[in-house]
Design a protein that fits this description.
single chain; 457 residues; alpha+beta; four-stranded antiparallel beta sheet; 12 helices; 26 strands; globular
Length: 457
């Protein structure tokens, strides 16, 4: 069971209080603890919609509130209300990955909305590797048998899934016409996007998009093996999870279309496996090229270039789905978008080093290798961090700002190994430790890094 230490937060902890109501010559004592259960649950629903840890503090006000509202422990994975969506494991840098002896079994998490930090004791990283964090849950691979599990970092709840070994064997059969070894396939499995869906019977389904191989696979709690797709999609650079489905940009450079891959639902595994992705929208080529999908304000938006890497445009995917005229957004409020293989949205209100209504992206032309911040309202660009992120011979200047750490979260191989991101730096593998070296030959891992970052971000 993980233990959590509270960190800095902008939210105020609810305090118990009492008030006096005067009625003629007498008075009546009213206490917050005596709130009606229906009203209390209504308040609780609003609190948990904001942040899970605020809900924990809410329940800690008094025994009555705690007894009336559901406890997250035991429900952390199977109840979507308790998923810590706003929380991201914080990459410490310098290779201090989870499980490193210097950390003493503790891992820090950053709330991307409030700017709060918490420190959690997670000894499981001594024998698990981190793959992804769908819905704020940690997708882990057990070293002993390659079994997969979902861990709630704050409640300690776990959902177990089959071993990757079963998936590798099935992919070998599906790709028998390709000259690939088991090590090649295993190397590809280090670069996965994960999506989580919870069903009415409290079973949990995880879908994996294996971008290097172009396949998708799923497994539910209780399954004995993974079910891979019989089809493969070329150019699956990123797969964005949204409401349990994957949204993928296909044909990134020419006539891009938006594809959706749904979880199996009630369909059979064979039917799901052979069902190709649905083409749900076409990106208007006259408005943007090279689109990226990002979740912002609980909806999917598209970010792309309007003209030769000088101006960025933002569109709502909902407009394209409704076949409505696509009108570029001039504001995304206090949000700041970070573009990479994994795209992220951060609320700048409580993160002073992050500018709101902006898009941070790596420049690959002109001032190549610099991390640029695009002001959506003014249409101007500025360098957000010093250094060339594509030039390996020169290190990125220190000290690292919070922006360096957030950008690292967009590059999962660096995020999981806790090295500050910088292009295809070969040193990442050399310093990643015996855990990764024992699994994947160095030449294959370096090849993966090149393929993984082959698209210009």
């Amino acid at each position: 069971m993980p233990t959590t230490e509270a960190g800095t937060s902008t939210n105020q902890v609810l305090q118990g209080a009492s008030s006096q109501r005067h009625n003629g010559g007498g008075s009546q004592q009213l206490s917050w603890a005596s709130l009606h259960a229906d009203l209390l649950n209504l308040i609780a629903d609003r609190v948990i919609a904001s942040d899970l840890l605020d809900y924990v503090r809410f329940r800690a006000v008094c025994v009555g509130w705690r007894d009336t509202t559901p406890c997250p422990h035991g429900r952390g994975v199977v109840d979507p209300r308790f998923h810590p969506r706003q929380w991201m494991m914080f990459p410490e840098g310098s290779g201090l990955q989870p499980g490193h002896p210097a950390l003493g079994g503790y891992v820090r998490f950053l709330n991307l909305s409030t700017g709060a930090f918490v420190r959690v004791h997670l000894p499981c990283f001594m024998n698990h590797s981190l793959l992804d964090c769908p819905e704020g849950l940690l997708l882990l691979e057990r070293e002993k048998n390659s079994a997969i599990c979902l861990l709630h970092p704050f409640t300690g709840d776990v959902a177990e899934f089959p071993s990757f070994a079963s998936l590798i064997q099935q992919l070998i059969k599906l790709r028998s016409n390709k000259d690939e070894s088991t090590d090649d396939l295993r190397c590809g499995l280090f670069n996965v996007f994960a999506s989580v869906s919870v069903h009415a019977d409290h079973s949990v389904t995880v879908m994996l998009a294996i971008s290097n191989l172009g396949h998708v696979a799923y497994a539910s709690t209780g399954d004995q093996q993974w079910t891979p797709s019989s089809w493969a999609m070329c150019g699956m650079w990123t797969a964005v999870p949204f409401h349990g489905s994957f949204y993928v940009v296909r044909e990134w450079k020419r006539n891009p279309s938006i594809m959706r891959i749904d979880p199996p639902g009630g369909s059979s595994s064979s039917f799901w496996s052979s069902t190709p992705p649905r083409n749900v929208a076409t990106c208007p080529a006259e408005l943007m090229t090279k689109p990226y999908l990002v979740v912002c304000n609980s909806e999917l938006i598209l970010v792309g270039y309007a003209d030769k890497h000088s101006r960025l445009v933002v569109l709502r995917l909902a407009d394209l789905l409704l076949r409505a005229p696509a009108v570029p957004l001039m504001s995304i409020g206090d949000n700041a978008l970070f573009i990479g293989p994994w795209n992220m949205t951060v609320n700048s209100k409580n993160l002073p080093c992050v500018q709101g209504n902006s898009i941070t992206i790596l420049a690959t032309s002109g001032t190549g290798g610099q991390l640029l911040q695009y002001d959506l309202a003014k249409g101007t660009r500025s360098v957000v961090c010093d250094g060339n992120f594509l030039r390996f011979s020169r290190p990125i200047p220190r000290p690292y700002s919070l922006v360096h750490h957030i950008v690292t979260c967009c590059h999962r191989l660096f995020w999981s190994s806790c090295h500050i991101w910088r292009g295809n730096e070969p040193e990442v593998f050399m310093q990643w430790g015996a855990r990764a070296r024992a699994r994947v030959p160095a030449t294959l891992y370096l090849h993966l890094l090149q393929v993984h970052d082959g698209r210009s971000f």
